[in-house]
Amino acid sequence: MASSFDSWCFKFFPMALITLAMVISKFSVADPLPAVFSPSPWSSAHATFYGDETASETMGGACGYGNLFSNGYGTDTAALSTTLFNDGYACGTCYQIKCDQSPWCYPGVPYTTVTATNLCPPNLAEDSNNGGWCNPPRVHFDMSKPAFMKIAQWKAGIVPVMYRRVACATPGGIRFYFQGNGYWLLVYVMNVGGGGDIAQMWVKGRKTGWISMSHNWGATYQAFATLGGQSLSFKLTSYTSKETIIAWNVTPDNWNVGSTYSADVNFH
User: Fold this and answer.
1) Is residue 99 within 8 Å of 138, Cβ to Cβ?
2) What phi-psi label fits residue 183: left (phi over 0), alpha (psi between -120 and 50 degrees) or beta?
3) Average pLDDT of 6-32?
4) What is the side-by-side order of every strand in the sheet holding 175-181?
């Protein structure tokens, strides 16, 4: 004859298991873990450099990041060939690059990490293996000179490399720089973590619903709407991880073009 303890166990533990299963199911469906960017496999490419040791020629560029020093990118940057640039959707992506099997490589240097901030345009007048380094379908990195000099002697000019995409280790939240007028808002998106890239973007004023923004060029998105006099929030989807985040109330009501506003969220 079963004891009262055995009877209690028989009744309690199946119910506990059912409750636990419901809790796990609830959280796995309603509260999925955020997407985390994982490094890609190593692949082969080539790298050159442009500019001098000051990296002054890397300022501006096809991503629209302006002054790379004041906007947090520094000198560890690279221009991508069109195959990698992806019409500007690769702006802000991060790469580990290591010199590979060249006498110009610095020994004992595992890799350096750069952020994509510019386009290396094709030079179709030159052979792809002799001057037209960024011609499609070549995968090529035209690095800032300080970044190139971390992996190889600058006298090499060009070196074979191995590279892989990695998560961008960005401090703080995403930053938004505004341009435009009363009927058109152009937003430069900077300091993006995770995959570093943006696929879609929306803006919401305190008085509006979500408004879809279109990709303009580089790392810029635009909305044709009257948004003055109200705080603005942004919703962004990562191009690579597909993670979507919302940056609520990024600006005050009296925001201005020509100003930069910081969110308190970023991609993983």
Assistant:
1) no
2) alpha
3) 39
4) 244-247, 232-237, 200-205, 210-215, 220-223, 184-190, 175-181, 260-262
